[in-house]
Amino acid sequence: MKRFVNVGLGGTFDRLHAGHKLFLDIAAHYGQFVHIGLISSSYLKKVQKKYFKRIQSFQIRKKEVEKYLLTRNTSTLISSINTLRMDQKLASEGDLSALIVSQETCSGANAINRLRTFNKKSKLTIIVIPRVIRADGTLESSTRLRREEERSTDSTL
Question: What is the pTM (predicted TM-score) of this model?
Answer without folding.
Answer: 0.81
